[in-house]
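Record 1 of the preview.
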Amino acid sequence: MLVSLHIENVAVIRCADMDFSRGFCVLTGETGAGKSLLIDSINLLMGGRVNREIIRTGEDKALISALFSPDEATRNALSALGIDTEDELMLQRTVRRDGKSEARINGRAVTGGMLREVGELLINIHGQSDNQKLMQTAAHRVLLDDYAQNADELGQYSKLYDRWKTVRDEMSRLRSNVAERLRLKEMLEFQIKDIDAAKLRPGEEEKLTERRDKLLHLEKINRQVSLACRVLCDGEKATVTTLCDRATAALEQIAPIIPECDELIERLNSIRAEAEDIADRVREFGDEDVEDPTAELDRIEGRLDLISRLGRKYGDGVAAILTFRDEANARLHEIDIADDLIEDLAEEEKSLSKQLTAAADELTQLRKSAAEAMSAAVQESLAFLDMPKVRFSVAVTPAEDFTAEGKDHVEFLIATNQGEPLQPMTRIASGGELSRIMLALRSVLNLRYGVPTTIYDEVDTGISGRTARKVGIKLAGLSKHTQVICVTHSAQIASLADAHYVIEKQETADREGTLRAETSVHLLSENERVEEIARILSGLDVTDAQRMAARELMAERSQL
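->
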């Protein structure tokens, strides 16, 4: 269950703290007081989409945190996600002005996706948008599957379907226009022949470029090589080697007197040997007798031009051209063996179709069984919610072909008046009926696999009086199995709560003394509840008669 909620700098909420109890909790307040902001904040905390406009004007960030006390089933589900907890679980989300957000679970940073997964285990939020989902037939299948609890079977089916569709798509591609395949084959054969004729070798372009540069500067290379060698050891006069010899001879004369000279002589000998080695290496640079440099340059330029021409068609550089050739050859091989591949794929598709049919049939049976039970349960719940003559049914009919969710078409059917035939609910349900139908569905689903906390945002839309009272009784009944938090404008609903919070907006001075709107949340005492429920009943000035009516409504709580 949700134990406490803390909100900072969310629109007109500067700072608000709420401690929740078990059972049935209601939130009331004037229109525009900020009730929807509480729901938006909880949505954000549960991993909802970040909107930096939600941050209070003048502040850099907004913060929402909540403390939960998970039951054993929820703790086990959390453990499967890698989150171990015993008594309490803390969720926190920070939204910054630059659009960035930060999520934490028990102080550990987590991704938004992880926050959503955890949030789905802790809270179910039912708002007015959920009523609109009932007008989308696709949502009917999801709700039925939730009730059927067939996630494992649906998962197995989905894997088979994905592979079956991949095989069919591949077969379709291979069976594409025969003339197109022949045209592609001819083009690939030409490209491969064009590349093979060049007899390219990996690294060839780099070697040719290096050789070309050397031939272009051959005269300069030879001249500088000759100069370097003369300076090092080939000259007739002072060279590095002769100078080292003279210095060595001089030091040998004083070595008997100065022992340190022996080390210096060794170093000079090393320098001389190094100079001779360098000279040998330098000679190799120019030690080349090119018979006809111009002819060789023409040959190299022609080869580089060929590589460049091929590169413009098949890829920049020899490596890219050869890669293109390998890929073209693989595609050509695929075309050559297309008939064999099609035959193999056809066999696999046949096998997958059998498996898919069996998996789809199993899903159909589960859905039909669940549809029967769900129809009866929702029918009973609707009767309690002042819709006794409404008939509700979940229709499961065969789809034309396999889909990603099975081979069933699921649709909710309803007859709102006696003697009328069942018709698609998307055509005939009114706003008030949708609210009660969704409540009936949620009550049935929650009793089957409910999350610890369910939040209803203005579930009283389109209803009043006796019907609203029945909705309140239904919510109070649900709260015996799960924590129920309800935002409402109905005194008939609010008077049945175990805990009643009022949301108010007033103007307060900020640090600069400027008056600003600010929303606060307050847990009402028994006497304060009487005044608030009387206010909802009256709409204007509260009278003793309305207070008496409020007490009578509240007194019925003990009889539930």
